[in-house]
Amino acid sequence: MAEPLLDAEEIAALESRVGQSLATGSTEGLDVLGYGEITLVVGWPTGSPRVAAKRLPPFADDSAAQRYGALVGEYIEALADRGIEPVRSEWVTTPTDDGEIAGYVVQPVLPGECLGMNIVTGGGPSVAAGLPAAVLERVASSVDPRFGLDAQVSNWAMVDGSLRYFDVTTPMLCDAAGRTRLDLGLLTAPLPAALRPVARRWIAPGIVASYHRPRDVAVDLIGNLLKERAGHLIDGAIDEANRWAMPPITRGEIDRWYRSNARLWELMLRLRRAEWWWQRHVRRRNPAFLLPGPISR
Ligand SMILES: Nc1ncnc2c1ncn2[C@@H]1O[C@H](COP(=O)(O)OP(=O)(O)OP(=O)(O)O)[C@@H](O)[C@H]1O
Ligand SMILES: [Mg+2]
Description:
Blueprint: H1 8-24, E1 31-35, E2 40-44, E3 51-55, H2 62-81, E4 85-86, E5 90-95, E6 101-108, H3 116-122, H4 125-142, E7 156-159, E8 162-165, H5 184-188, H6 196-210, H7 214-227, H8 234-241, H9 251-282
Parallel strand pairs: 4-8
Antiparallel strand pairs: 1-2, 2-3, 3-6, 5-6, 7-8
Bound molecules: adenosine-5'-triphosphate and magnesium ion.
């Protein structure tokens, strides 16, 4: 068996360093590779990262963390079964300072030029257009009521000429009755406490369900090209998707999707900022997440 990507000592050191950033609210000295809606992605060790470590909101106990890790493992198998090659990913856990359990998905760090969002803006015209086209093919042949996928270009990489998927931290699998196996509480964790039950019951299920519908996944991927500053690839990607999307996707639909989505994520960010401020200044606790700076949309 290959050596694990991080040993127990390194995981503890990483968590302690992340804990410091959570306590100060500053990411200085930490190599933040990405702020997800749910996960914080850190390059480790700082300075010359070998791995990308994706920290989920802390789990109450070890068995909850292990269950989540097992679901991530199943999702990685489901990806491979459906012809989508996942980036090597390992699940590791370590106690937090507060006595909870931090769970991380750990992957080898991929060079910038391999990342989908850099390919669509920086690759030559045919390479750039080839990425959404290849992703749309995977969407058509894999997404169904049991298996969901977040196909945005920021979740893919090209390694040695082949397409790889790396956003495995939200394993979207449903059981035979069509219920998501993902803990929806995780999706609402960074929201203000008063909103969580409402979001969990009325908003999160609809969002998760849309990742199980190939046409919706395609609209999300194509609309997101605007945010990635690759709007010139949209018309070509619509043509690709319309080989199978029914009813056909239109440019007007993509533009409307983008406007309403930009508003939704902006609102989410404001709510997370409010929750961060509340935890820090009113509850006088360390918020369990870090905030990204301003995002241009
Ligand atoms: N293995 C990796 N190597 C280099 N950079 C990575 C790697 N994994 C993730 N990143 C960077 O971090 C960003 C976010 O990672 P990822 O898509 O896995 O999680 P996420 O979108 O934050 O997850 P979610 O929104 O589901 O919480 C990526 O878009 C990429 O820029
Ligand atoms: Mg992502």
